[in-house]
What does this fold into?
Amino acid sequence: MNQPRQELLRYLHQLAEREPVIVLDAPLKQTKAGVEPDDRPERLAELAQETSTCTLCQLSETRQNVVFGAGDARAAMLLVGEAPGVDEDRLGEPFVGRAGKLLDRILSAMNISRQDVYIANILKCRPPGNRNPLPNEAASCLPYLRRQIDIIQPQVIVALGLIAAVHLLNMRPNVAVKALRERIFDCRGRPLVVTYHPAALLRTPSLKAPLWQDMQMVMKLLSGEIGWQPESSLVLEV
Ligand code: URA
It folds into this structure.
């Protein structure tokens, strides 16, 4: 085994504090046939253009940039956070601040780069002071995210944190991430896994181990080791 790979595995073991560790060797692009015609990049670009002038809620008055989302339009994994922060608003890119750097490290521990996945948020514009999304803001913005999901057709959706989970699953917020973990939900006919937001790990480093367990479940879904079928009775519309 070569040196960088050995180092990666050692790091993964430390991160997980448990074995076995799955490392994806294969590229994460969807290989599934049947997504034809594959005009996902063009359709996503058109949607990005449409959202760039959005004035559906009051956040359009205070934002610097619409943070549409970034990554591979054909990604197998879609990660959804809460809303842009100050750095994301300035640069127009999701997860580029401290939490984003940690997200990059989590992905690289999975042998995945940011370019292989797609990253988006519940809100595309920064709420002033990073407050939680207001109901009208989420209601205005969610249709864009639904359209992104339907275009990308990811094999797995990862909800990063409670705000992402409750909006994607149309739940009341009187629930904790802990109660939503280790389950596979249905979001628009796709499996959805809930884990902690990277910012929560910055505050509480002990959440690293459960997050890593969640990511292992994600990798097993991607590799087919865990099978999943949409269950009409469990479908929770976004
Ligand atoms: N936190 C989020 O939820 N999203 C971002 O894009 C950045 C930080």
User: Anything to note?
Assistant: The mean pLDDT is 89. The first strand starts at residue 70 and ends at 71. The longest helix spans residues 135-152.
